[in-house]
Amino acid sequence: MLVQEAIGALAHPVPQADPVAGRCVGSCAPDVDLPSSCGGFRDRRCRSTPRGTSSTSADRADRRRRLNSAYARTVPRIVDLSAPIVAFPAELPDGLRTDIEFHGHAEGAQQIEQLLGVKPELLRDGDGWATERFTNFGTHNSTHVDAPWHYNASVGGQRAQTIDELPLEWFVAPGVVLDFDGRPDGEVIEAQDVERALAQAGHDLKPADIVLVRTGRDAFLQELDYMARGCGVSAAATHWLFDRGVRVMGIDAWGWDAPLHLQAARAKALQEPGIFWAAHQAGLPYSQIERLCNLEALPPTGFTVSCLPLRIVGGSAAPTRAVAIIP
């Protein structure tokens, strides 16, 4: 009964056409291939041809071509900057590994029969729903956005923000790519390197810009030693960007700092605090995007980054479908 009531609550009126203006009200004409302001539904009872006129198949085909052409001219190019989410090798420790269970259509049909009493023969081709379940998926195990809470419990004398507390405006902004591809593993990118790379990119850095560091290490995403590769950004360079209003910085490597084992070795050899995880623990309320990919497909400047994080209450990070929008 509860299931039936829930389904009923989702019902909506059948879309109708406006007989006076010939406008779609709640759905689109079946001959339009494109999404529209009326929701994108394609109901054959709703036509955009005004009453008293007729539309031939040639007319509809011509109209479709014109609409598709207009759509192609206005839609920007989108470059996916997110690593694919796949099951990782079993050799990796639990904290670094992603495990996914896939449940097919036959299993979905069994669930539908158990929950609702609808037998498989009443489903198209006998198929029920297909679903997936993460059995092991950390918030840092994919392309993700770090919150200040990840770095320290407090920043500037106040409790550090969790991922759900950060302004969404941070995560949709103009972007710039700083190209450090070819730098050796473990090399540290300093503030002067950032300045030179910005000049080479021809980008005038502004507050709220999203800065993306290209190292080329996304080529090793599926390798067991991925986390041991890459150059890192120094705490001083991170401060330099933050002081100029940058709040989101990203990299196409496992982490924003140099590989952990190299930091650890130096910290233990020198027995000094502030060496290990230096850029993370720079004492700044900023956000990092880690495990990006495809930065080589972007122009140096002139695009917008969208990297909105999932709203995980109290989270130190959240997965994101990071993309670049190129007009």
Structure notes:
- The protein has three domains: 13-75, no CATH class; 99-136, no CATH class; 144-326, Glucose Oxidase, domain 1, CATH 3.50.30.50.
- It is built from seven helices and 17 strands.
- The chain has helices at residues 2-9, 57-74, 105-116, 148-151, 191-201, 235-243, 260-270, and strands at residues 16-17, 24-25, 77-80, 99-103, 131-136, 144-146, 154-155, 158-159, 172-179, 188-189, 210-214, 232-233, 248-251, 287-290, 301-306, 317-319, 323-326.
- The protein has a nine-stranded mixed beta sheet. Strands 1-2 form a two-stranded antiparallel ribbon.
- Helix 5 packs across helix 6 (235-243).
- It is globular, with a radius of gyration of 25 Å.
- The two termini are 50 Å apart.
Q: What descriptors fit this protein?
A:
globular, disordered N terminus, Glucose Oxidase, domain 1, 9-stranded mixed β-sheet, 327 residues, 3 domains, 17 strands, two-stranded antiparallel ribbon, alpha/beta
Topology:
Layout: H1 2-9, E1 16-17, E2 24-25, H2 57-74, E3 77-80, E4 99-103, H3 105-116, E5 131-136, E6 144-146, H4 148-151, E7 154-155, E8 158-159, E9 172-179, E10 188-189, H5 191-201, E11 210-214, E12 232-233, H6 235-243, E13 248-251, H7 260-270, E14 287-290, E15 301-306, E16 317-319, E17 323-326
Parallel strand pairs: 9-11, 10-12, 11-13, 13-14
Antiparallel strand pairs: 1-2, 3-17, 4-5, 6-14, 6-16, 7-8, 9-15, 15-17
Helix pairs in contact: 5-6
